[in-house]
TrEMBL record:
This is ABC transporter permease. It is found in: Cell membrane. The keyword Iron-sulfur does not apply. It comes from the Bacteria. Pfam families: FecCD.
């Protein structure tokens, strides 16, 4: 079997997995609902209460798929443009920028959370990435090292600011403490509609850059000799990763390990070709996040574990195993 054929099989398998977990997500949850309850609702009838439950599950399943796909693909891009196997969206300041924006709105403007989180978190993430890129370019070097260092510095500063505000105003951060863990609870289609344009734009840009990202992985000098405009590709890659990660973070909060772990799984399955890595990461990331959400709803009945907690529990052991086996590769 050729590499392309194998990658196609993996993509089809990931798609089938996504379909299965999406269907399970409609039936499984903190409330007991069986086939006889859900099927009438899907057919356009059924009990009003069950209809409301199924409608909420449809929204959180769709939003979970978008968040998982966006985080996974963003991780692939970040690891590609930085050639760092431990790269993930937070490396660019996306997560901490969104969090700082939500904290500021909560503390100074009486922000109470809900769907409006998107309109606060999205610009916060964008401003943070712009600051990281600006600081990284001041060195005059085309290396990615200043960019990574700038991201680390900004994350440390904004992280300290967030902790200071939370400690100073604990009474106003009830909504924030749920959002910051990463959760799909209360997801609605309005949130999906708000973040979808940014996610779609990031996805399209990422797919356009796929071939150039392959060349970039060979090193800046060799990529330049192959005709790749390295600064342009790196800048466009940062823009694509920012759009994807900002949309995901704004919708569900900082969800851990998806953007870090999924790219390693994808590379192990389809190799280093970004033309296959990106489509597979979209589908596999969506499937894994929806599955994590289902697990969080089922294992803690009648309550639920937030999806960010589940992905951290699953992602941390995986990453440790990958490092110990020497399989963390770019």
């Amino acid at each position: 079997m050729t590499r392309g054929s194998r990658a196609l099989v993996v993509l089809l398998g990931a798609t089938a997995l996504l379909v299965v977990v999406a269907v399970v997500s409609l039936f499984a949850g903190s409330k007991d609902t069986g086939l006889t309850d859900v099927l009438p609702v899907l057919a356009g009838g059924g009990d009003e209460y069950v209809q409301a439950v199924v409608d909420s599950r449809v929204a959180r399943t769709a939003l979970g798929a978008l968040v998982g796909a966006a985080l996974a693909a963003s991780g692939v891009i970040v690891q590609g443009i930085t050639r760092n196997p431990l790269g993930e969206p937070g490396l660019l300041g996306v997560t901490v920028g969104a969090s700082a924006a939500v904290v500021t709105a909560t503390a100074f403007f009486g922000f109470t959370g809900g769907g409006a989180t998107v309109w606060v978190a999205l610009p916060g993430a964008a401003v943070a990435v712009l600051a990281v890129v600006t600081l990284g370019r001041r060195s005059g070097s085309e290396s990615v090292v200043p960019l990574v260092l700038a991201g680390a510095v900004l994350s440390a500063v904004l992280g300290a600011y967030i902790q200071a505000m939370v400690l100073a105003r604990p009474d106003v951060f009830d909504s924030y403490r749920h959002w910051v863990v990463g959760s799909l609870a209360g997801a609605d289609l309005q949130t999906l509609q708000a973040v979808a344009p940014a996610a779609i734009a990031g996805a399209v840009l990422a797919l356009v850059l796929a071939s150039s990202l392959d060349s970039l992985a060979l090193g800046d000098e060799l990529a330049t000799s192959l005709g790749v405009r390295v600064p342009l590709v790196r800048g466009a890659g940062i823009a694509a990763a920012t759009l994807l990660a900002a949309a995901a973070t704004a919708a569900a909060g900082p969800v851990a390990f998806v953007g870090l772990a999924v790219p390693h799984v994808v590379r192990a399955l389809v190799g280093t070709d970004h033309r296959w890595q990106l489509p597979v990461s979209f589908v596999l990331g969506a499937a894994l996040l929806v599955a994590a959400d289902v697990a969080g709803r089922v294992v803690a009945r009648p309550g639920e574990l937030m999806v960010g907690v589940v992905t951290a529990f699953v992602g941390a052991p995986f990453l440790l195993a990958a490092v110990r086996r020497g399989r963390v590769t770019t």
